[in-house]
Write a structure and sequence with these properties.
single chain, mainly alpha, 5 helices
Amino acid sequence: MKQRLLMRIKHRLSLVGQKEFQHHNQIKKNQPDVYQLSFEATSSKLAHDLLVAYSDDISNKVRNDLIDELDAKISYHQQILQANKISLEANAKQQLANELIKTNYALDMAKSADVTKPLADMNNGELFQIELGTEALAEKSKVLKKIKDLSVFQPQLGIIQTKLDLLSKVKIDHNLALQSVRYLQNTDYPISRDKPKRPLIAVLGFLLGMMLGVAIVLLKSAFNKHVK
C-alpha cells in the first residue's frame, strides 16, 4: 500500500522539490545539492512514512545505478584484457612456430656439416645456430614442440591472466545498504498541520456567524415592523 501511495505522489513530490530547490538555490548558491521536499498527507505518521519511503526509493535507485556502472566497467576491462590476451597469444604462437622452423633448419644444416657437439666458438648472432650441434638442436626441437605456456614468448600474458582471474572473482552485493540521502534536520513525525489551518477556520467561522446573526436580527426586525 505504501508503495502505491509513493508512486502516486512521486511525480508531484519531485516537481515540488525542484521548485523549492530553485528558490533555495538562489538563497544558498554554495549548496547546489540541497533540496527541500514538501507534500501533503492525511496524518503525521503517513507524512513521515512517505518521506522515509521516498528517501529509501532514491537510495535504491542510486545504488542500482552505481552497481550497473561498476558492472559495466568490470565487463569493459575484461573485454579489453581478453582482446589483448588473444592478440598476445597469436603473436606468441607465431614466435614459437618461427623458432621451431629455424631450429629444424639449423638441425638439418648441422647434420650436413657433421656437427654433433656444441662448438667452442659459438656465435649467438647467427640466424641458424648450427654451432649448438645436432644433439642440442634435436633436444631444442623436442622442447619447442612440447611448450604449452605461451608466456615463455610473451611474459605479459601471465600478467593479463592474473588480472582476468582477479576481475572474475569480483562479486558485487546487489543488496548492499547505500544511504544516498542525508537530512539537514532529523526526520520525525510532524507536530503541526499545514492544512487545514484551524485558526483561520475559527476566525472565518466566527465572522460568518456574526454576519449571519446580524442578518437574521435585521430580517426579523424588518419582518416584525411589516407585520405591525
